[in-house]
Design brief:
single chain, alpha/beta, Rossmann fold, six-stranded parallel β-sheet, 15 helices, elongated
């Protein structure tokens, strides 16, 4: 991606629109830094949960219409992603025509991306397609019609970006994207100021037995928590009691899993419930090791958040962010449906507390290559490419 300095400076004066179904907290650090490079940047979103701590007003966000997710399969009841589509307002055309962007960065293969591509020739804007990452539940390998539509959309786009190598493989080998137009670098990355520890929000927390293992996320079958609980049960059966599992989040499976813990007499598990994003950092700081036992995740920003805060990570091989884990250096990768393997990895930290500090330091160093500033620079280079 080489562009002359003069051309690059001119590109930085262009108008950029991000099309996001949900302008979630994890998008804001990178787009905020991106806006410093491209001041005339606007986000059009179907839903907006508010600003992350430290980014209040740092991004120009306009909510368009009403966001609605329509489920085809019962929501949150299957071990993979639920079959659904996002219903977004066609009113997005009005602010697009009013803002007159030079470049549109649009996520995934939804209706807003299709609109951007259909109007591309008429409006003479460039379109960069963002595909978070690859996983069976979103790749639709058994749907010829979807794949045909996606191939057409990829062909019409000026460039594609993705967080992971797996995402690139899907775009190039399945959707036939020109590999010269597909760029890989984590762009959904956390920022330290969003994870600065605030006032103690913990209510009802019992005394913690160290090491403390932490899970943060939705409590649904796709996240694989039943296997994590089984790993804790294996450790307990082997006589290991001096550790804690903190579970932060809420969801449809919580009562079922709480009952499972009671059946297995697992006193090591503490349920913290759903927590506001601004308070999540408190639990990260209380923890020693982070665990993501997911059965399917296209990315997994929580892994990067934990590493940024200096935590060793035990990460399911089925998370896109597992690509950032080097076994024995900043954490370990495991197969989520093999609780015995996970129990053995947890035991390494139970038996060797010095390992926590050593691997945690490496985790933090890993994140020096994945900052919002670096992600914004990467996106700037992709935009320069798309503008040629």
């Amino acid at each position: 991606m080489s562009t002359s300095p003069e051309k690059s400076r001119k590109n930085h004066e262009c108008r950029v629109v991000w099309l996001l179904p949900v302008a979630n907290f994890y998008w804001q650090p990178t787009i905020s830094e991106f806006t410093k490079i491209f001041p005339r940047t606007k986000v059009l979103a179907g839903a907006f949960p508010g600003f992350a701590k430290g980014f209040e007003g740092g991004v120009d966000v306009e909510v368009v219409g009403q966001f609605k997710r329509v489920g085809i399969r019962a929501k949150d009841t299957a071990p993979g992603y639920s079959y659904s589509f996002t219903a977004l307002s066609l009113k997005v055309i009005q602010p697009l025509l009013r803002f007159k962007p030079d470049v549109i960065i649009s996520t995934s293969f939804g209706i807003w991306t299709l609109i951007a591509l259909l109007l591309k020739s008429w409006m003479k804007w460039r379109v960069i397609l963002a595909y978070e990452g690859s996983s069976p539940g979103v790749d639709f390998l058994n749907s010829p019609i979807r794949l045909s539509v996606r191939r057409s959309m990829v062909k019409a786009a000026n460039a594609c970006i993705t967080n992971s190598q797996a995402g690139k493989t899907y775009l190039v080998e399945v959707l036939n994207a020109n590999k010269e137009q597909v760029f890989v670098h984590p762009y959904e990355v956390p920022a330290a100021q969003s994870l600065t520890q605030g006032p103690r929000p913990l209510l009802g927390m019992k005394q913690l037995q160290h090491p403390v293992f932490l899970f943060v996320g939705r409590i649904i079958p796709r996240k694989g928590l039943n296997f994590l609980i089984e790993a804790c049960s294996i450790l307990q059966e082997q006589g290991y009691q001096d550790f804690t599992l903190l579970i932060v989040g809420g969801g449809s499976q919580q009562k079922e899993l709480e009952s499972l813990c009671q059946e297995k007499c697992l006193n090591c598990v503490q349920w913290m419930g759903k927590v506001e994003y601004k308070n999540v950092s408190y639990y990260y700081n209380e923890a020693d090791i982070f665990i993501l036992p997911t059965l399917e995740d296209t990315w997994g920003v929580v892994v990067l958040e934990a590493m940024l805060l200096g935590k060793p990570v035990l990460c399911s091989i089925r998370a896109g962010s597992a690509e950032l884990i080097v076994n024995g250096e900043n954490g370990y990768i495991f197969h989520p449906d093999q609780p015995q393997q996970l129990a053995e990895l947890m035991l390494r930290f139970i038996n060797n507390h010095d390992l926590i500090s050593a691997i945690g330091s490496n985790s933090q160093r890993t994140m020096q290559a994945y900052t919002p500033e670096i992600a914004a620079k990467f996106l700037s280079q992709v935009l320069d490419f798309a503008m040629v």
